[in-house]
Design a protein that fits this description.
The chain is an alpha/beta fold. It is built from 15 helices and 22 strands. 34% of the residues lie in helices and 23% in strands. The strands form four sheets. Strands 9-10-8-11-12-13-14-15-16 form a nine-stranded mixed sheet, with helices on both faces.
């Protein structure tokens, strides 16, 4: 029998509404297409879609009950509230409060927060009942949705928390109430909405506003604004600051991260003790993310040795650095799938990883490096210059071919040497045919761009090279 997550009585108390009939829910959903039998369906009303139109579909899929704010006849038990978005927020807060024993770790940063979150989830799942936010459920609905699904008896919870504007992260962290707050790093992302890097740092430091009294802050010691982060954490009541980086004095110090075959071999010092472990990712940035995750686990009271063992076997999140060897004529090529999102920092790290893997392949006489890059969004007036700057790194790393998608990435395409220019198109889909036509055995292909560019379509086509471009 599936244990109930919420009873209608508990929901009435959390939401301040009255249920039309008693029921028990085993899960929470805001999308009628993904409702599982026994779920509570919350009918959110947005600018493009209104969940109230799909309540009947949710019940048909097996929903136990629904939360609504519009009048009407519904084919199952409903709890009526003034506003369903406010109800979701309240339910998330209630889920966090009732999980009294759970140690909650909040993760934010301009780069690496999803990968770090996944690493933390793998570490903590091996040491107790862990609840981890799915995908990038890190915004105004994703955070409360994740917390509404938090089992009351969880030992750990890992919540990614994101933002685009000042004040957003503060509101979310007050719901999550993290015991440990991790900042992976802060870079020039979302410059469209901030005056400068200092303003972005200040916005990321809002995560400390929800930190439980005496909680831990895990911070990048190498960052130029480390002092600002540390001061913000202590001012918010952090009782413990855990640092990671390459600088001497870091609590978790990265000594080396070397790409060998299709893994990254990491050497580090943790608390002055030498450790070594292997990650199924490529790139020094993954070594740094791993140290951030270990720092978060330490802050939550986890065992270090068990944490290192868990990292050896972690599954790579889709679109965030997953490597695969794809069969093609006379052999295979390597795909580095970084297609989920991009900003200048993560783009630099991904190109470095491409170059590292290509160098390894070249030891065996193969290894042309293909960069398949899409526009990076939300960079404001600096967007064209930041895209043009990508060309310098491509040249420095001796990348062989550039396939560029979007009007902004054309600045990089135009700035690289002619022999490097493979193809430019306005859309990702339009690059599929020329890319498939040029790839041959031994090549290394890295795909990256902002989520809205849909570079994942290219990655999907490459994983199935027999597919014809649409």
């Amino acid at each position: 029998m599936v244990k109930s997550l919420w009873t209608s009585a508990a929901l009435e108390k959390a939401l301040g509404g009255k249920s039309s009939a008693g029921f028990a829910a085993a899960g929470v959903s805001i999308d009628s297409r993904s409702v599982a039998p026994g779920d509570l369906f919350i009918a959110l009303a947005g600018p493009s879609h209104d969940g109230h139109a799909f309540v009947a579909d949710a019940f048909k899929a097996g929903a136990a009950g629904a939360v609504v704010h519009k009048s009407g006849k519904y084919p199952g038990p409903v709890i009526r509230v003034p506003d369903t978005m406010a109800a979701l927020t309240a339910l998330g807060a209630a889920g966090r409060v009732r999980a009294k024993a759970a140690r909650v770790i909040g993760v934010t940063g301009s780069v690496g927060k999803t990968g770090t979150k996944e690493m933390l989830g793998a570490i903590l799942a091996a040491q107790g009942k862990a609840h981890v936010s799915q995908g990038s459920h890190n915004n105004h609905w994703g955070v409360p949705l994740t917390l509404s699904r938090l089992p009351a008896d969880a030992a750990f919870a890992v919540q990614e928390i994101g933002m685009n504007h000042a004040g957003e992260l503060a509101a979310l962290t007050r719901i999550a109430r993290p015991d440990v707050a991790v900042i992976t790093t802060v870079g020039p992302a979302h410059l469209e909405y901030f005056a400068d890097l200092a303003a972005i740092v200040a916005a990321k430091c809002e995560i400390f506003e929800g930190l439980t009294p005496g909680g831990a802050a895990v911070l990048p010691l190498d960052h130029g604004f480390f002092g600002d982060m540390e001061r913000a954490a202590k001012a918010a009541g952090a009782g413990n600051v855990i640092t990671f980086g390459v600088k001497e004095g870091a609590d978790l110090r990265l000594l080396s991260a070397r790409v060998i075959a299709l893994r990254t071999e990491v050497e580090a010092e943790i608390g002055g003790q030498a450790v070594a472990f292997s990650l199924p990712f490529v790139g020094a940035h993954w070594g740094m993310n791993a140290l951030a995750a270990i720092g978060g686990a330490i802050g939550a009271g986890a065992d270090i040795a068990a944490a290192l063992d868990a990292l050896e076997h972690i599954e790579v999140p889709a679109g965030r650095g997953a490597l695969s060897e794809v069969p093609c004529a006379d052999g295979d090529f390597v795909l580095i799938d970084e297609s989920y999102n991009a900003n200048p920092q993560s783009m630099t790290a991904a190109i470095d990883a491409l170059a590292a893997v290509a160098t390894m392949r070249q030891l065996f006489g193969t290894g042309r490096a293909f960069a398949v890059l899409g526009d990076m969004f939300e960079l404001g007036p600096t967007a064209k210059a930041l895209h043009a700057a990508v060309a310098a790194q491509l040249k420095a790393k001796e990348i062989d071919r550039l396939f560029a998608a979007g009007g902004l990435m054309k600045a990089a395409f135009d700035a690289v040497p002619e022999k490097m220019r493979a193809a430019h198109a306005e859309t990702a889909d339009a690059l599929i045919a020329p890319l498939l036509a040029e790839i041959r055995a031994g090549d290394v292909v890295m795909v990256k761009g902002s989520h809205g560019m849909r570079m994942d379509r290219i990655a999907a086509a490459l994983k199935n090279p027999t597919r014809k471009a649409e």
